[in-house]
Amino acid sequence: MSVPVLVLAVSAACCLGFGFVLQQNAAQRAPLGDFLSPRLLLDLMKVPRWLGGMALVVAGMALGAAALGHGELSLVEPLLATNLLFALTLSRHQTGRPLGRQGWAGLALLAGGVTAFVVAGQPTGGRAFTDPLRHWLIIGGTVGLAMLLTGCAKRSRLTVGPALLALAAGLLYGVQDALTRVSGQRFTDGGFAGLLSGWQPYAVLALGVTGLVLVQSAFETAPLRMSLPALTAAQPLAGIACGVGFLGDRLRTGTGALAWEACGLAAIVVGIVLLGLHPAMPPGVAKSAHMGDVRMG
Question: Where is the signal peptide (predicted)?
Answer without folding.
Answer: none
